[in-house]
Automatic annotation (TrEMBL):
This is Aldo/keto reductase. Coiled coil: none annotated. The keyword NADP applies. Keywords: NADP, Oxidoreductase. Residues 32-267 form the NADP-dependent oxidoreductase domain. The record marks 84 as: Lowers pKa of active site Tyr. The active site is at 55 (proton donor). Pfam families: Aldo_ket_red. It comes from Planococcus salinus. GO terms for molecular function: oxidoreductase activity, acting on the CH-OH group of donors, NAD or NADP as acceptor. Substrate binds at residue 117.
Length: 281
């Protein structure tokens, strides 16, 4: 994937343009640290911000966006903002209401991407109908899912009028999910990685450290570059300005085919988050 700048985008099925690289804010609490992280990311050139209702931080994200675009001299339309409907709100009317609640908290008129957060059995099809309505009504630029396995997607597609445009999943060198990735490529569903650095657990991995030394980069930069070269959108989390800048400094080098294969070979099917086939929330 010849991604060259922080503003490079992939065109989704809807025609919406989604940046390959963005900021995730999972487990960042409301408050000045969150607002400053969003503002700093925008100042550094990030154009994608990913949050979710369950994170409990949409208000701070919204404030960071408003202050960030003003300081950077850009418009709301220059940003790609994602949120997600939580499990307790899955259902047709409740999902529509949850969307409005998220918009109100964020202080925005629309979202660029709205996702079903988890594939709760017996609930996600009704929620998907609501997302389709939001999309058809022009209230959201793109719709998708998160944490869906192949069988969840196959089940959803039996009744869906519109295909999910994105599937956001746990994806890192210890969990490459090749079957799911192949299926999504076939279906035109863009994969997006959450926890790309495995919550920091991979930062001392020996093979990745060797590659970091070889390319004169950090382990995080090696992993994030690997994401892009495998065709996966990535949204690492950080609130530290130096780390935000460092994470995004991955457009001046390219991993060789051999080194990409070395990283692929690290797969252990190991998760830091729940398995979408076995969660109880």
């Amino acid at each position: 994937m010849m991604t060259r700048t922080l503003q490079d985008v992939v065109k989704l099925q809807s025609g919406a343009e989604m940046p390959w690289f963005g900021l995730g804010v999972f487990r960042v609490k409301e408050g000045p640290e969150l607002v400053n992280a969003v503002k700093t990311a925008i100042k550094l050139g990030y154009r994608s911000i990913d949050t979710a209702a369950i994170y409990g931080n949409e208000e701070g994200v919204g404030r960071g966006i408003r202050e960030g675009i003003k300081e950077a001299g850009i418009s709301r339309e220059d940003l790609f903002v994602t949120s997600k409907v939580w499990n307790t709100d899955l259902g047709y009317d409740s999902t529509l209401a949850a969307y409005d609640t998220s918009l109100n908290r964020l202080g925005l008129d629309y979202l660029d991407l709205y996702l079903i957060h988890w594939p709760v059995e017996g609930k996600y099809k009704e929620a998907w109908k609501a997302l389709e309505k939001l999309y058809k009504d022009g209230r959201v630029k793109a719709i998708g899912v998160s944490n869906f396995h192949v069988h969840h997607l196959e089940d959803l597609l039996q009744d869906a009028e519109i295909k999910p445009m994105v599937n956001q999943i746990e994806y890192h060198p210890y969990l490459t999910q090749k079957e799911l990735q192949s299926y999504c490529v076939e279906q035109g569903i863009q994969l997006e990685a959450w926890s790309p650095l495995m919550a920091g657990e991979l930062l001392e991995q020996p093979v990745l450290q060797e590659l970091a030394d070889k390319y004169n980069k950090t382990v995080a930069q090696i992993i994030l570059r690997w994401d892009l070269q495998t065709g996966v959108v990535t949204i690492p989390k950080s609130t530290n300005e130096q780390r935000l800048a460092e994470n995004a400094d991955i457009f001046d080098f390219e991993l060789s085919i051999e080194d990409m294969e070395q990283i692929e070979a690290l797969n252990r099917n190991t998760r830091v988050g729940p398995d979408p086939d076995n969660f109880d929330f």
